[in-house]
Specification:
CATH class of the largest domain: Alpha Beta
Structural class: alpha/beta
Distance between the termini: 28 Å
Number of domains: 4
Radius of gyration: 29 Å
CATH superfamily of the largest domain: Tetrapyrrole methylase, C-terminal domain
Number of helices: 17
Strand order of the largest sheet: 3-2-1-4-5
CATH topology of the largest domain: Methyltransferase, Cobalt-precorrin-4 Transmethylase, Domain 2
Number of strands: 17
CATH architecture of the largest domain: 2-Layer Sandwich
Shape: globular
Helix content: 25-40%
């Protein structure tokens, strides 16, 4: 982060605005709305500012003494030299200062604001694109109605009584989520607070029945955060603990709840932080502690993700769980690489295989894989590439068959290496692709030259 996001309490405090035009007036109004006292200094001050209650107007050029007793400064003049002087003098006194449209002179920045008091949402691009932040605010205006303000006030009324009745923090968080995502919230937002209060009291009376632990087995897709499902995002924000491995991209991990505990369980070739059996036991142990556990897995949990093994353990232990499918690597990576998995001129079927089995060998049904008019997608096959190509040729697949390696597919670091069954092992030796990779074999690979431009990351 370039700036630390904070919300500052300025109620009853003196803030300074240097400048007397429309921009200065807008900044002053924002401070007044937050309860601040405002001092405005400029040779000419707009009449609307002078008349504002709570504004001390000083018609003069800015001087150092105008900084006396202020806790915050905004410079909004059209004179860069004055703005620079304000910035330097304020920072010399360790007073936070913002200079409009000059981020290099700022010690803090003013975000675009969505006001649903007491709910406040602030947007900032660090000064890079104020227009973009206003566009984002406009989008959220449609998603967060004014009634959320009423809901926040309602929750505040009962916050202390719920805290006394539900002492366990994790359990209390679940209680509030059940209330604020359900019928109670609907009643509040439609103005029927009496019914909402009665329902909330009923929930408190039954608080011992609050579900104590659950596991969310969520497919994170092949890497691009935009490929997450809405349900995945919702559960990612609810979880108390996040258990993830090497195939989950960092941007996706960062989209989980900020205060959730994060546990990395590894999973690189020949380097597992935890064995699969230990991961299964970890999920059970955390759920039995009353926590909502997010098991975040790359791609889809049920396609070479060992999701089946994990839920077998959960079911045997009586742990509630949810499974959220994700876009598997074969589909997502092939699409971003411009390689359709099926095409009536090249392939009428598609087969997914894993490049290594439990014993670490590549013992596949080679005759079935070498059939014509078929696409073969190999997960985790990079280190067995020589064997893969040789075995397919040995079992009848032409050595001129196109083949592609896609590295870090769907991410900005995506890289595609193509060749044939006879040439690709040598090309890979020179190019040295790094895991995670996906291997695609078949005539559809030749379509990449025509279709790769469809996606800017291809």
């Amino acid at each position: 982060m370039d700036f630390l996001p904070v919300f500052l309490n300025v109620k009853g405090k003196l803030c300074l605005v240097v400048g007397g035009g429309n921009v200065a007036a807008r900044k002053a109004r924002g401070m007044l709305d937050a309860g601040a006292k405002v001092r405005v200094v400029a040779p000419e001050i707009a009449p609307e500012l002078v008349k504002q209650h709570g504004v001390e107007s000083i018609v003069a050029r800015f001087e150092s003494r105008h900084l006396d007793d202020v806790i915050l400064v905004i410079a909004a003049t059209n004179d860069r030299n004055v703005n620079k002087q304000v910035s330097e003098l304020a920072q010399a006194r360790n007073i936070p200062v913002n200079v409009v449209d000059a981020p290099e002179l700022c010690s803090f920045i003013m975000p675009a604001i969505l006001d649903r008091s007491p709910i406040m949402v602030a947007f900032s691009s660090g000064g890079a694109s104020p227009v973009l932040t206003r566009m984002l605010r406009g989008t959220l205006e449609t998603l967060i109605p004014q009634s959320y303000s009423r809901l926040a006030v309602f929750a505040e009324r009962f916050r202390e009584s719920v805290k006394q009745r539900v002492s366990n923090p994790a359990k209390r968080r679940i209680f509030w989520e059940n209330a604020l995502e359900g019928v109670v919230a609907e009643k509040v937002m439609t103005g029927d607070e009496a019914s909402a209060e009665a329902m909330l009291q009923q929930m408190l009376a039954n608080e011992d029945n609050i579900q104590r632990g659950e596991v969310y087995l969520v497919g994170a897709g092949p890497g691009d955060p935009d490929l997450l499902t809405f349900r995945a995002l919702r559960l990612m924000q609810k979880a108390d603990v996040v258990v993830y491995d090497n195939l989950v991209s960092k941007p996706i991990v960062e989209m989980t709840r900020r205060d959730a505990e994060r546990i990395f369980v590894g999973k690189k070739r020949n380097d597992h932080t935890l064995k699969q059996e230990e991961i299964n036991e970890l999920l059970v142990r955390l759920a039995k502690q009353g926590k909502r556990v997010l098991r975040l897995k790359g791609g889809d949990p049920f396609i070479f993700g060992r999701g089946g093994e994990e839920i077998e353990t959960l079911a045997a232990e009586g742990i509630p769980f949810q499974v959220v499918p994700g876009i598997t690597a074969a589909s997502g990576v092939a699409s971003y690489a411009g390689i359709p998995l099926t095409h009536r001129d090249h392939a009428q079927s598609c087969v997914f295989v894993t490049g290594h089995l439990k014993d670490g060998t590549m013992n596949l049904d080679w005759e079935q894989l070498a059939r014509p008019k078929q696409t073969v997608v190999v997960y985790m096959g990079l280190h067995g590439l020589d064997i893969l190509c040789a075995k397919l040729v040995e079992h009848g697949m032409p050595d001129t068959t196109p083949i592609a390696i896609v590295q870090q597919g769907t991410t900005p670091n995506q890289r595609v290496i193509t060749g044939t069954l006879v040439t690709l092992p040598g090309i890979a030796e020179r190019e040295k692709p790094q895991a995670p990779t996906l291997i695609i074999v078949g005539g559809v690979v030749t379509l990449r030259e025509k279709l790769a431009w469809f996606h800017p990351q291809a």
